[in-house]
Design goal:
Elements lengths: L1 H24 L18 E12 L6 E7 L8 E4 L3 E8 L7 E4 L25 E7 L4 E7 L10 E7 L15 H12 L2 E8 L4 H11 L8 E4 L10 H7 L2 H7 L15 H4 L26 E4 L5 E8 L6 E5 L4 E6 L3 E7 L1 E4 L4 E7 L6 E8 L7 E8 L47 E9 L6 E3 L28 E3 L5 E8 L8 E4 L4 E8 L7 H7 L11 E2 L1 E3 L8 E8 L4 E7 L2 H5 L3 E6 L18
Parallel strand pairs: 1-4, 3-8, 9-12, 11-19, 20-23, 22-30
Antiparallel strand pairs: 1-2, 4-6, 5-7, 7-8, 9-10, 12-17, 13-16, 13-18, 14-15, 14-17, 18-19, 20-21, 23-28, 24-27, 24-29, 25-26, 25-28, 29-30
Bound molecules: 2-acetamido-2-deoxy-beta-D-glucopyranose (11 copies) and copper (II) ion.
Family: Belongs to the multicopper oxidase family.
Pfam families: Cu-oxidase, Cu-oxidase_2, Cu-oxidase_3
Keywords: Copper, Glycoprotein, Metal-binding, Oxidoreductase, Signal
Length: 615
């Protein structure tokens, strides 16, 4: 035990040493001189120092981890709606990087969106960058790296924005009892994050190098983490085989899943008709499971509070996960930082980039309950667990807790209910314009290699992260090509994601800047010129009345046929923003597109954000 503590403190010691080194070498801090904005309220100042370290998140020794102020996940940023924020990133990593505020609309501050090649240049080693923005929205968000695959090295942390008092809560749809309502409000005020992520034993650079060397889509992770903690629990091959889904067995054609529970890269159907070099696959990419004894996250609850509230944050880089707390149903009351009519469910399925805010009633016998997450999807069999423990009370629980979900992330018993995305009703309802001014159809497919992807007519090269940021050069030749779309301010825009199949996993599509209305999705080819035309043929698949407002949504899996997904938004925030797949290896492989929103009303960039400014 003592030994473990010393090991877990090494990153912190390194962080202090690094900080000391930086303080000696750093130029005078210029942030104050460059401070902008005329808000009467002082801005909330928050700073993270990025350092590289050997880490042991799942008990496996992993060089090249990223820590934020010596921590992982990064420290919680807590705000109140309306706050102005000054988020400073000190980069002590040996390479440039940027930080993005996932789901934050960056209304009026497109220069703080954190996308290299679009809104800024990478923050160089030893340099800092101040992201200034306003918390116009409330709810659950997170910050994460947006350069190369740094998010896979652990650069992420939670953000919670307390809703203004004037914003109506949906809690009276759960109960009208005043004690219950007070308990729910109090729980909401004390919302804590549960960061769900996946973890690889190879660094993001090693994963990318391996993709280039093998030509393969590296769709396999080493472990799942809950609040940054976890273990590798190699399942016996018989268990893996027993749980292999029939559809996967068919793909495997007589072979079996790897010891990491992944589809072997030699299964041609999943990697597409492209050349591969299997001898360049490093150990641990698809197989080579090594069990570890890592640490377990503990969530404490006090039953006197009656309710607990959590932000479930989908910070994975690769995998879709099911999540549940044994014997504790959850009221999902917000999705992607926007209230909904509460849905009472036993389990949720959470994709990369998605956030659910949930209320849980603490009415079970006091004791310990297993918190479970498991990959749900066909690509891998893997799970993780944490513990929910009742404190400040006498424990009366008599048996081990009963699971809602199994290691496949499926219902463990017949009566378990999953959150249903199609049944989300926003609170309050907002209605989009009934017709769009412009429609873009973006094709999602492989592009010349298993690991390269399109979003639209072309594949967005990773090298563009190092080019001149388009926010500063909206009229350059680079801003007029297949890698950008252009919209006019105030107009309504439809984007149809046309998954041209065959055999693609769901792609978690994330749009930067303001949220979008999720109009619908379906299986089969999208053969329509517009949503209006589609609505005449498949009205049941499109919701123009009370669609959810989201910033991240999964395309339907294209298992045997193509699939599609339609979103609509109004352009209100001129600037250069990315829309992309939130699976990091797909984003690195080009599944991204730049939206030059409101090119006719382009913003004037403040002095301190001009390229080459010393701020
Ligand atoms: C701040 O106020 C000054 C003086 O009133 C004004 O000139 C300036 O444009 C304002 N700046 C911002 C960022 O609003
Ligand atoms: C609480 O009261 C409101 C207004 O009368 C009603 O719409 C709502 O359904 C009630 N909630 C519950 C849980 O009964
Ligand atoms: C399945 O395996 C058999 C025997 O090895 C082989 O003949 C056949 O071509 C395979 N089918 C596919 C779809 O790969
Ligand atoms: C395949 O990878 C191996 C190991 O990295 C390498 O030695 C070999 O040259 C590669 N083959 C081709 C055709 O690139
Ligand atoms: C996965 O689930 C099994 C069955 O509940 C459990 O024994 C195991 O500890 C879980 N694995 C991890 C890494 O938590
Ligand atoms: C899970 O739910 C499905 C659909 O309701 C049901 O068919 C299946 O039997 C359930 N699984 C278990 C293990 O009960
Ligand atoms: C999900 O909700 C939609 C819309 O209410 C409904 O049509 C569908 O049957 C629900 N699906 C499940 C699995 O309950
Ligand atoms: C991709 O493949 C197409 C043909 O399928 C070819 O025309 C194009 O040049 C290739 N692009 C790259 C970048 O290799
Ligand atoms: C893709 O190419 C077609 C044909 O040239 C064009 O009509 C369409 O606008 C392009 N789509 C995008 C998103 O650039
Ligand atoms: C962009 O359009 C929105 C919505 O019509 C409007 O509120 C906003 O003022 C416009 N912005 C600019 C810079 O014109
Ligand atoms: C959408 O994808 C289908 C293939 O599934 C393709 O035939 C069609 O041309 C695509 N639509 C557009 C507008 O590119
Ligand atoms: Cu993807």
């Amino acid at each position: 035990m003592r030994n473990f503590n010393i090991i877990s403190n090494i990153p912190f010691v390194l962080y202090l040493l690094a900080l000391l080194r930086w303080v000696q070498a750093a130029p005078a801090l210029s942030a104050d001189v460059c401070a902008a904005g005329n808000s009467t309220r002082a801005p909330v100042r928050f700073a993270i120092t990025l350092t590289e370290s050997v880490v042991y998140h799942d008990g496996f020794k992993r060089p090249g981890g990223i820590l934020m102020n010596g921590q992982f996940p990064g420290p919680l940023l807590e705000l109140e709606q309306g706050d102005d924020v000054e988020f400073t990133v000190w980069n002590l990593l040996p390479y440039p990087t940027t930080v993005h505020f996932h789901g934050n609309d960056q209304l009026g501050t497109p220069w703080s969106d954190g996308v290299p090649g679009l809104s800024q240049r990478g923050i160089q080693p030893g340099q800092s960058f101040v992201y200034r923005w306003t918390a116009t929205q409330y709810g659950s968000y997170f910050y994460h790296a947006h350069e190369k695959g740094h998010v896979e090295d652990g650069l992420y942390g939670p953000i919670h924005i307390k809703a203004a008092d004037s914003v109506e809560r949906p809690f009276s749809l759960i109960s009208n009892n005043s004690d219950e309502l007070e308990a729910m409000r109090k729980a909401e005020d004390n919302t804590r994050p549960i960061v769900l992520s996946d973890w690889r034993h190879l660094s993001s650079q090693q994963v990318w190098d391996a993709e280039e060397a093998t030509g393969l889509d590296a769709f396999c992770a080493n472990s799942l983490l809950l609040n940054g903690k976890g273990s590798v629990n190699c399942l016996p091959q018989e268990t893996i085989n027993e749980f292999t889904a029939p559809a996967v067995k068919q793909l495997l054609n007589g072979s079996q899943l790897t010891d990491m529970g992944c589809i072997p890269p030699t299964v041609a159907a999943t990697q597409g008709p492209f050349p591969h070099n299997f001898s360049a696959i490093p150990p641990g990419l698809f197989s080579g499971c090594e069990s570890t004894e890592g640490s377990t996250a503990v969530l404490t609850v006090d039953p006197h509070d009656v309710y607990a509230s959590w932000d479930l944050i989908g910070a994975a880089s690769l995998l879709n996960m099911a999540f549940s707390i044994d014997e504790h149903p959850m009221y999902v009351y917000a999705v992607d930082g926007r209230y909904i009519e509460p849905q009472l469910v036993d389990a949720v399925s959470i994709t990369n980039g998605r956030r659910f805010s949930v209320l849980v009633r603490l009415d079970k016998p006091a004791g310990d309950y297993t918190v479970r997450s498991a990959v749900n999807g066909l690509s891998q069999i893997m799970n993780a667990s944490a513990t929910l423990t009742y404190v400040n009370t006498v424990k009366t629980q008599s048996e081990p807790s009963k699971p809602y979900i199994n290691i496949l992330g499926s219902n463990a018993t017949a009566d378990v209910t999953f959150q249903n995305e199609s049944a989300i009703v926003p609170f309050p309802v907002e209605t989009p314009a009934q017709y769009a001014d412009q429609t873009f159809v973006l094709n999602l497919n492989h592009y010349n290699a298993s690991y390269r992807w399109t979003l639209g007519n072309s594949s967005y090269p990773l090298s563009l992260e190092e080019s001149q940021p388009l926010l500063f050069y909206p009229d350059s030749p680079a801003a007029h090509n297949d890698l950008t779309i252009r919209t006019k301010n105030g107009t309504w825009v439809d984007i149809i994601f046309n998954v041209t199949g065959p055999l693609q996993p769901p792609h978690p599509i994330h749009k930067h800047s303001t949220k979008f209305f999720f109009l619908g999705s379906g299986e089969g080819a999208w053969t329509y010129a517009s949503v209006a035309e589609a609505a005449q043929h498949i009205p049941q698949s499109l919701n123009l009345k009370n669609p959810p407002l989201l910033d991240t949504v999964n395309t339907p899996a294209a298992a045997t046929a193509p699939s599609w997904l339609a979103i609509r938004y109004q352009v209100v925030n001129p600037g250069a923003f990315l829309v992309h797949c939130h699976i990091q290896v797909h984003l690195s492989g080009g599944m991204a597109l730049a939206i030059l929103d409101g090119v006719d009303a382009w913003p004037t960039i403040p002095e301190e954000y001009q390229l080459g400014s010393s701020c």
